[in-house]
Design brief:
This protein is about 30% helix and about 25% strand. By secondary structure, it is of the alpha+beta class. It has two domains: about 1-90, Alpha-Beta Plaits (2-Layer Sandwich); about 100-205, no CATH class. Residues about 15-20 have low confidence and may be disordered.
């Protein structure tokens, strides 16, 4: 059975910014798969998209998402938001359809679509928290998932993102942190481009 797993507190950074090979998803998965073999667990974990944080998991025996999340935490000592592949592709299609129209923002902000995901497999539809000057939480929600728009600051030309020191406001980890502050629980978040990249990798595996 196939799953997707989004690791908490590991940014989806590019290789040029990665100091050590073992910190990339490929390097991490080598060690993690060795743990599974050593403990005779019929599991395999592989990179799904980007260089860190997004994974494809295969189990030779069907596992409830709750059980797999617990196994990953106990054996790898990392937290993941885990979804069965079919469930993931289903809610992602609904999310994309619901978020075709961006919210209105100030001229110096650009809305970037994505989602926050609850780590607890037993949780239902997340509440709709109040938006802020940096995040607009979308009306779309399904079990464990709510759409979100990260309002990225632009340079004075109104086109390029403002990455100057003192102007950076954090990535999607900040969105997850805000969701936790407003609603409690444990969350991770990803941009729509990353969610799409994971979906594409999953479809390629089945071709």
């Amino acid at each position: 059975m196939e799953y997707v797993a989004f690791e908490v507190n590991r940014a989806n950074i590019g290789r040029v910014r990665t100091e050590r090979e073992k910190d990339t998803s490929g390097g991490l998965c080598v060690g993690w798969n060795r743990v599974f073999v050593d403990h005779e667990r019929p599991l395999r974990i592989c990179p799904a998209h980007g260089h860190t944080g997004n994974y494809w998991v295969y189990s030779e025996e069907p596992l409830a998402v709750t059980n797999l999340a617990t196994i990953l935490l106990d054996m790898l000592h990392h937290e993941f938001a885990v979804f069965a592949v079919d469930d993931y592709l289903g809610w992602l299609a609904d999310l994309k359809a619901a978020m075709r129209v961006a919210p209105q923002t100030q001229a110096e902000r650009r809305p970037t679509p994505g989602a926050v995901m609850n780590l607890n497999p037993a949780e239902g539809r997340p509440p709709l928290p109040a938006s802020t000057d940096r995040i607009v939480f979308d009306d779309f929600a399904t079990a464990r998932v709510r759409g979100a728009w990260k309002l990225d600051r632009l340079r004075t030309n109104g086109v390029a993102l403002d990455s100057r020191p003192g102007q950076r406001e954090g990535g999607w980890g900040k969105v997850a942190t805000e969701m936790k502050k407003l609603c409690g629980g444990r969350w991770t978040a990803r941009a729509m481009s990353t969610l799409d990249g994971v979906a594409h990798a999953l479809r390629v595996r089945t071709m």
